[in-house]
Design brief:
8 helices, 8-stranded mixed sheet, alpha+beta, 253 residues, globular, L-fuculose-1-phosphate Aldolase, binds zinc ion
């Protein structure tokens, strides 16, 4: 195993641990993947009889698969690609700029798909990144079954288009980004957006911020420079990711 593959596998496992510990998915369900740069291969969290759960994922539980979802190197014996590997392979096929795909089952976001309610831009400076997700609109995939075939994966990828996230009716969420850390932050931001929408609608009277403020927030998005190569984010996003890694770190002893 090359040091590049080891390092990407550890980042994939780290993202699993962070999102699992934040309760953004149920038990063992959910997976994070990353492209191996310059190849037609990806690294993905595997499933198997010995797994414990997303929040306990180690780099040894990350396997290499090809673009047809076949395991190339299973590493630890007994591990297999997730049934829904086609969510990942079909998004990578469709979007060359994407270096990481994450699929989880966050309950609060899923409630909005069940009730067919959109996530509204209810706040601004509280968290502009997730507010922009609501302003841009988040596509919803209308099927509720496992995405266990290339054709279902392709339908999901088409529904998602160029979005950072896609909500899946009665199922969960898929995010896609230029790096593992960024795709994980999209999952966290979408969950925050859904949590605030949920509580605000319970209180009653929730209404979107003004169109003027929506436009200002929409136009103030950080500039994207250079071509994504899957490397970890820099600046504010790096700091934010470090925070989530620390806050989800298990207590010593
Ligand atoms: Zn799923």
């Amino acid at each position: 195993m090359t040091s590049e593959i080891e390092s990407i596998s550890e980042r994939v496992a780290q993202a699993c641990r962070v999102l699992g510990t934040l309760d953004l998915t149920r038990a063992a369900t959910g997976h994070v993947s990353a492209r191996i740069p310059g190849t037609e291969r990806i690294l993905i969290r595997a499933r198997g009889p010995e797994e414990i759960g997303v929040r306990y994922t180690s780099a040894e539980e990350v396997v290499e698969v090809d673009m047809d979802g076949r395991v190339i190197d299973a590493g630890k014996s007994g591990l297999a690609a997730p049934q829904e590997v086609f969510i990942h392979t079909e998004i990578y096929r469709e979007r060359p700029e994407v270096h990481s795909v994450i699929h989880m089952h966050p309950p609060t976001v899923m409630l909005f798909t069940i009730c067919c309610k959109p996530l509204l831009p209810l706040y601004g400076a509280y968290d502009p990144s997730s507010a922009r997700m609501a302003i841009d609109g988040i596509p919803v995939f209308d099927r509720s079954v496992l995405i266990n075939s290339p054709s279902l994966g392709m339908r999901l990828a088409k529904t998602m288009g160029k979005s950072k996230a896609c909500m899946m009716h009665g199922h969960g969420v898929t995010t896609a980004g230029p790096s593992v850390e960024q795709a994980a932050l999209y999952m966290i931001q979408l969950n925050d957006l859904a949590t605030i929408n949920y509580h605000a609608q319970l209180l009653g009277g929730a209404k979107p911020i003004s169109k003027e403020d929506q436009d200002i927030i929409s136009n103030s998005r950080p500039k994207v420079t250079g071509v994504a190569d899957g490397s970890p984010p820099k600046g504010a996003e790096a700091a934010l990711w470090k925070y989530y890694c620390r806050v989800t770190q298990p207590a010593e002893g």
